[in-house]
Amino acid sequence: MKIQTLDAFIEIMRATIPVRRKMVVDYLLEGRTDPELIRHLKRFLNTIGEVPDQEGLKLFNLFGDHTARVDVTYETEELKKDIWFFENGEQVFTEHMESINHNFFREVDRGISFLSGLEFNSFISDRDGTVNNYCGRYSTSVQSAYNAIYLARFAAGKTRNTVILTSAPLGNGGLQDISVFPEKVFHYAGSKGREYADKKGREGKFPVDDEKQKVLDALNKDLAKLVGMEKYKIFSRIGSGLQLKFGQTTIARQDIHKSVPEDRSLGFLKKIRSMVADHDPEDVYFRIEDTGLDIEIILTIDKGDEGVKDFDKGDGIDFLDSALDLRLDEGINLICGDTASDIPMVEAAMKKNGETRAIFVTKNSDIQRKVGKLCPHSMFVENPDVLVSLLNQISLI
Ligand SMILES: [Mg+2]
Q: How many angstroms does the Cα of residue 31 sit away from the middle of ligand 1?
């Protein structure tokens, strides 16, 4: 099968989800997987490999005359890793990880001594860039099977509760849809913790003022209509695409490879600003943040004495502590993240329990300093491969 469009590529990546889910469950239960499923993954990888490329980027047709240059490193590398894992076994796979990551064994050993002997009440972790390698496009950032196996072992063996807490939405192509974890092990929290599906499948949402919600719903409806139009469709396909989170909406206007001509991208930003102004003429419900790639439309929350502020992941932890009955004050908790937006998680967890441990995946000295100041028991590793591998190793001890 040959693919030419970005939509076809997204479909291929989606098709890996049920295959990987089956591999994870089989492997965790029986320690093996059906070789036919490995062949499936190889076929997906070959199909992507046949797409023509230029300077390492794949060229996909995108709506009429437009060609998108797409970085598929995450998708292909994670497929290769899964194939390595199931074909050659865990020992060989670990050596493969060492060959692609500098200082891998040394970093893993350092993490093992940091966590050694501890059992965790709650393990709360960000996903992208922390326990999952970073992918610039949410629609295809499907979790790899080995990653789900490693994290499931740690969650089941060393924690009472594990929460994956992300800023992405929970459903509609969000966190739950691209995860291949086994059922009943993980709590999923989307939209920075404003919405969750617990490990028994129960769902809940942070209460948002009815009036505000109505305004956001109306805006989201208009946005979906807008990117359904031929002229604007491209913005729902590149980068972050359109993500209707609970309490926040993200719409891409550019991707890191500058697939969209800059004047068209700026025109779209202007269009979005005026659409938001139509829904919020008094400027009381939303705040717009333009990252140059994404336009974030954020619903503000009223925190009483702290005034009106943006909901952050620390607010998410406060909400989830009671909603999921985490009892964060009762035992040692582990918080993992990779960017500044994850720091409020450490702050919130430390307020509940001074025995909190933090591992951040970052080389950024500013983030390291801030986390270290908040949390005396903290450490830093270089990439998600190291973090998930050390969590796996520690659960096997
Ligand atoms: Mg992250």
A: 30
Same domain, 63 and 152: yes
Residue 1 lies in a domain: no
What is the total residue count of the chain? 397
Burial 101-122 (b: 16+ CB within 10 A, else e): beebeebbeebeebbeeeebbb
What's the confidence (pLDDT) of residue 349? 97
Domain that holds residue 265: 210-305
Within this chain, do residues 332 and 387 fall inside the same structural domain, yes or no? yes
- CB-CB contact of 121 with 331 (8 Å): yes
DSSP state of 128: B
Q: Are residues 52 and 148 in the same domain?
A: yes
Q: Which of 305, 320, 345 is the last residue of a domain?
A: 305
| Domain co-membership, 27 together with 55 | yes
Q: Tell me the CA–centroid distance for residue 29 and ligand 1, in Å.
A: 30
What average pLDDT is seen over the chain?
A: 93
Tell me, yes or no, whether 53 and 127 share the same domain.
yes
Residues in the 5 Å CB sphere of ion ligand 1: 126, 128-129, 338
Distance 72 CA to ligand 1 centre (A): 19
Ligand 1 center from residue 339 Cα (angstroms): 6
The reply to whether 379 and 279 lie within a common domain is no
Say how many Å lie between the CA of residue 128 and the centre of ligand 1: 4
Cα-to-centroid distance, 281 and ligand 1 (Å): 33
Between the CA of residue 103 and those of 94, 228, 345, what are the distances in Å? 12, 47, 28
Q: Report the separation in Å between the CA atom of 167 and the middle of ligand 1, taken as the mean of its atom positions.
A: 8
**Per-residue pLDDT for 177 more than 70?**
yes
78 pLDDT above the threshold of 80:
yes
Task: Point out which residues pair with 325 in neighbouring strands.
Answer: none
Q: What is the CATH number of the domain that holds 217?
A: 3.30.70.3080
